[in-house]
Description:
The structure holds 2 protein chains of 2 kinds. Chain A is of the alpha/beta class. Chain A is 35% helix and 24% strand. Chain A contains 8 helices and 10 strands. In chain A, helix 3 runs parallel beside helix 5 (159-171) and helix 5 (159-171) runs parallel beside helix 6. Chain B starts with a helix and ends with a helix. By secondary structure, chain B is α+β, with helices and mostly antiparallel strands. Chain A binds chain B through residues 66, 69, 71-72, 91-92, 95-96, 98-99, 103-104, 106, 108, 110, 112-115, 123-124, 126-129, 169, and chain B through 484-486, 488-489, 492-493, 495-496, 764-765, 767-776, 778, 854-855, 858.
Amino acid sequence: MAIRVATGNGAGSAVASAVDAIDVTRRFGEGDSAVDALRGVSLDVPEGQFTAVMGPSGSGKSTLMHILAGLDSPTSGRVSIGGEDITDMDDQELTLLRRRHIGFIFQFFNLLPMLTAEENIVLPLSIAGEKPDRAWIDELTEKVGLADRRNHRPSELSGGQQQRVAIARALLSRPTVLFADEPTGNLDSKTSEEVLALLRDSVDTYGQTTLMVTHDPPAACTADRVLFLADGKLVRDLGRSSSHEVLEAMEEFSVR
Amino acid sequence: MTKAAVKGLLGRKVRTSLTAFAVVLGVAMVSGTYVLTDTISKAFDSIFNDSYKGTSAVISGKEVVTGSTSGTAPVPASLLPKVKNVNGVDAAAGAIFDVRGNTDFAKLIDSNGKVISSPGGAPNFGWGIDTSQPRFNPFTLEKGKWAAGPRDVVIDSNTASKKHFNVGDTIGVSAQGPTRQFHISGVAKLGSVSSIGGATFALFTVPTAQQVLGKQGQYDEIFIAAKPGVSEQAVANEVKPLLPASATVKTARDQAKDVSSDAQSGVDFIRYLMLAFAAIALVVGSFVIFNTISMTLTQRVRELATLRTLGASRKQVRRSVLLEGLIIGVVASVIGLALGIALAKGLNALFVALGIDMPQQGTVVRGRTILVSLLVGVAVTVLATWGPARRATRVPPISAVREGATLPRTRLARNSTRTAAIVLGLAAGLLIYGLFAEGLATGTVLLTVGLGCILLFVGVGLISSRLVGPLAAVVGAPAERFGGAPGRLARENSVRNPTRTARTAGALMIGLALVALIATLGAGVKNTDKNAVRKQVTADYVVTSSNGFESFIAGAGDAAAKAPGVEVASSVRADKARALGSDIDVTGVDPATIGQVYAYGWTKGSDATLGTLGTNGAVVKKDFANDNHLAVGSNFTLTTPAGKNVPVQVKGIYEPPNKDFDPLLGSVSIPQRTFDSTFPRPKNLFTFLNMSGGESSQAAAGIERALAPFPDAKVRTESSFVDSRTADFDKILSIFYVLLALSVIISLFGVVNALVLAVYERTRELGMLRAVGMTQRQTRRMVRDESVIMALIGAALGLPLGIFLAAIITRALRSQSFAFSVPVLILVIMAVFAFVAGVVASMLPARRASRLNVLNALQYE
């Protein structure tokens, strides 16, 4: 009973979709030991929206994000990003797509220890061989609150500061969609709040389309929309929700 | 714990085998050296033992002067009948047979009129054997018959098959006189030896050999067979009273041992030389192992800590690491031992290619070879594991639950800068003392300078982690400039762990420093030598033997003198003699002409002195005069190899340029007429020619025509003569380069190892880089650039260090007016080589890095 989740604006909406997935399945392994991580997920993330994907562990939420971001390929189904079908792209095409369209925030920050904060921020652009826009960098470092830390190395920064560097790094190229994989999974609650506020702010200020995978209900509450995944299927699509609503939905699907 | 260690090794196959390879090559070098030299040694043993197989005792001439070109003193032929009459003697035969290789030279001439010889100077023997007494005949006939008449010759089977000679063919032989044609009556080999290497032999009847080799009325040896029941020693004792003072009798066993000791000492030299290079390879290998195991342990901190939390004691942790080293050592040593047997063949092929073709007898793998190879391989590995194993014990159990835990630094590492400063200071002190202090003995100078050089190496190794940063900035600049972000990250990566990079580059540094050292010293030696020769020779042409260092038939010099256009011809005879308690080189010069073709650097006297030599006047080298307190007017006696005494008086003293570098004339030069009447079978070392029209192709052609009957004599212009003096030196250098290449290859395995481990360590980072848009190509480039940077750091440390050491040694040898010259071309080649090596070393790790599954990499812990 896969639910086709559409945008809240209805048909003929002027809002284009940043990510579009049609009937995505993903099977790991073969034969008896095969595991179906995704069993037909269709979704559509409109531009400028902050979407959270929730679900108990093993629900397939990370697999979904990896497939949407072009890091993994679906067993069947199609995925497009910014209107481009990425399903059959080879490694090189996917890499170039990631440069243009995708930003990443990881649970473990994944900063390069030998680079300064600012160097880490501009890293994707320098890999792509592009010149960063000075004013934009300054604005971003200001926004993530690292203006006075830009020459520090990751080892000299706190966990929250490191994640803020990672956010600035992801925002720098103004990606079509920003994927955040458990961005608060490795942070204490106070820092988590700061980081989530920052993500929210980037959506509000820059219209940054963001898709976040999390199992942390307060985190999901910051999103415009919360999708619930269970047993490889989308089972609930909530709009902006309170912590209580999220918890309730969680309970419903994990107990089942 | 044992099981954990073994499983751990199996789980890290690539790392383990790369580590093991660093030992494999070193051990292969050790076992290869032993196998090769034992094989040669056994061949020599067989040659000498087979030579005296049916013989009880041997009478030979005493070796009056060691290494003389005219050999030992002769045994008068008249002695043979007397020996035969001795009671205990069953039979005796005289022979022209000296297997030592200093005399009895008869060169075979191939169908194109060229001398058959190996460029490395393996001997070309001419022998005469009494084949009517088979018990004394060390040769085995393979085809045809023994030589019976004055035109018959039996040649060795090697030459016969290589040059397609058959029984019944005619072959030229060049010995004391012009080439003569002989009829091949048979083909033989010496005893059971499978190959006598590059050597050749021509076997005549005894009278023919005496005549061909200028030994009429003489034998080299008289073979004696004792009557049944008479011991070897007894028959030798019986014969002894009959002998003239110049002859000696020995049991066959002693004789074989004596003659083989010369050859064996040559083999020993090769063995020790090659073992020295094997030692270098092992040192480099231990560096690589030490570094690899350290890196592996850093990555396994959590695993080790988990073991500790599960109750493993420090001792158990240390043991498990040492056990890993032991297993790697044993496996690698066994493989290395086996590989060495193959390497022995390769090394021999290398020697043969460079003209050093030595006898072979099967493939000899002695117990000692196995024992030493295994012992050395295991010991080196375990020793290299010792430090890391100790550090592993310091991992606190809490690291099991901590993210990014690291190994605690050792005390030595913490104080490395201070230690390095102390070591470098000591090195500098020793070098300054050794090089600049006045009045030190040469031995003291060499000792202090040598020790200083070793400390310098260690010091540079210790300080190198401090130099990695700046060096990486310099050698990494092009990568950063042209490589974009991957180039920049490569540079950053290379300095992330300076100690590791320093050790990896340090292994390469050792090899490259030694190459630079040898190349620089080699260039110095060559230039000094060429200069020295150029300053001495003022002739247009020089006639020498074909290989340039043997002497040639005096008749060839006389023939060259008659070539059209020859204005001055001056032959130089040469041999050794005993004088004032030592064996010295003596040359016989023509006083009337030598001054026009050879520039004496007179200390006492002038070219006019040459006219006053008379019959017993001598010109001596300054060093010889000083060592023996000789002045003009001093008298002393020369003893020739034949045992004759020649009284001489010093008339002039001269000093060749650059002293010990290639003085063309001997310590003592006497008039040629005196030389010819006192030395046996006089031969020329050089014949210098001045032409009326100087050098021209016509003149050269004329001389060549005149020399046609003497295929062993070769004419060269002055400049090509100068070049030819150092041609052999180039061969030796290339052998050194090949042997050092092995060390360099081992250090490259270190680079591969370091990169593979770095890729493992940075898996998640690589995943992130790929996720944010790094292409596979960029990833490969990043790893490759890091590899090149490491290799170039090795070159940047090693090449200057090598040149510096060469400069120091040059300075230490300043009394020899030794020139210092930097072989720019070779250094550029080495730098390019380091670059290419870096690229090659990066191929496997770069491929691994680029093929990482992004998703798995991101989730990697």
